[in-house]
Design brief:
This protein is mainly beta. It is built from four helices and 23 strands. Strands 2, 4, 5, 7, 8 and 9 form a six-stranded mixed beta sheet that branches. Strands 16, 19, 20, 22 and 23 form a five-stranded antiparallel beta sheet that branches. It has a four-stranded mixed beta sheet with strand order 11-10-12-13, with helices on one face.
Length: 348
């Protein structure tokens, strides 16, 4: 009886060992190597992931090779410009070669966004047309940044009274397009009439990469706005200016409407006005950025710490828009942020 018990124990132990060995040595049909980016600037890091054809993660068990030489871990950094061939191997099965490249920064492209400045007014019955066009554009792209510039009178006795009027006469003199509404793309290009039928014109300006990007950090505390605007360049620029807007959302006021949009109703009672310009932290036409700052790989930072504008109804609804314009006043790229934002640059 004792011998039988010993025999059963040994048999069980052997089966257990065989089972464990089988799990360790099980084969895979394919090893798939991917990277979080195929191109990065020197001294940045590319991280690799290894999976089998079922999607099981093998990263911690696979071995990676760069130009045929084994490396430790699953990350690669290079201090020099160049292209490298990376492969992964697991249980004798190799992945397809994956080329990755490190560059000097000049090959970096950033997400391109379009600034739409909507010159409007609560008194302006044709102005909802541009607002509707902006809504359609935003449905097609997250890279549309609208600003509602209400004009032209702060006088309650005036037929063109608007409680949100903001004086942008200095800019409008340069644009030199009379009347309202007018939608301006990247400040200097008029959005073709009728704007809702010309969405492609606006969306087209978001296509392709930009050689400059912005990232914002924002807080509001104790009636003070703290805004850091960071601008990164992947080529040399000159004669640039920074513009920073303070906007407010959720403002309720009746809107005249002579269009067929929004049901063709006049008046749009308790209409919600969003992205309304309430303040400018820089000169309206821009604050010059030194040419020593607008060079390849540099990050320019401009910080503001100022009181919330007195015309803001609710600081919880603040929004910030920052953009850089060239010597002709055209916006090169733009970024918007709400409260308590901490943005990163968006490489393509």
């Amino acid at each position: 009886m004792k011998k039988n018990i010993i025999l059963l124990f040994l048999t069980s132990l052997m089966l257990s060992a065989c089972s464990s060995e089988y799990e360790i040595l099980k084969s895979v049909e394919a090893v798939i190597l991917t990277a979080d980016s195929s191109i990065k600037a020197v001294d940045q890091t590319i991280t690799f992931t290894v999976k089998d054809n079922t999607g099981a993660d093998l990263t911690g068990e696979a071995t990676l090779y760069v130009n045929g030489e084994e490396i430790e871990g699953n990350m690669l950094t290079s201090a020099t410009v160049g292209t490298f061939e990376v492969t992964a191997k697991y249980l004798g099965v190799s992945s397809a070669a994956l080329p990755v490249r490190f560059h000097d920064g000049s090959e970096t492209n950033f997400v391109r966004r379009v600034l739409i400045e909507d010159y409007t007014g609560t008194w302006c019955g044709y102005c909802p047309r541009v607002a509707y066009g902006i809504e359609l554009a935003k449905e097609q792209s997250h890279n549309v940044v609208p600003v509602a510039i209400h004009r032209p009178s702060s006088n309650p006795a005036s037929p063109s009274y608007d409680p949100y009027n903001y004086n942008t006469g200095e800019l409008e003199e340069i644009i030199n397009i009379p009347g309202y509404p007018k939608g301006m793309l990247n400040r200097m290009t008029q959005w073709n009439f009728p704007e809702p039928d010309n969405i492609a014109q606006a969306i087209g300006l978001t296509q392709g990469g930009s050689k400059m990007d912005l990232a914002l950090e924002t807080t509001v505390s104790g009636g003070t706005m703290n805004v850091d605007v960071n601008v990164k360049f992947s080529q040399d620029f000159s004669n640039l200016k920074l513009v920073v807007y303070v906007l407010e959302n959720g403002l309720i006021y009746d809107q005249h409407n002579y269009t067929t949009y929004y049901g063709g109703v006049d008046i749009l009672v308790n209409y919600q006005h969003n992205h309304v310009l309430r303040g400018v932290l820089t000169p309206l036409l821009g604050e010059a950025i030194a040419s020593t700052e607008t060079v390849l790989n540099n990050v320019y930072t401009r910080s503001f710490s100022v009181p919330v504008p007195a015309n803001v109804a609710n600081a919880a609804n603040l929004e910030f828009v920052a953009f850089v314009v060239d010597a002709q006043g055209k916006a090169i790229n733009v970024r918007h942020a709400g409260l308590n934002a901490s943005q990163e640059f968006e490489e393509m």
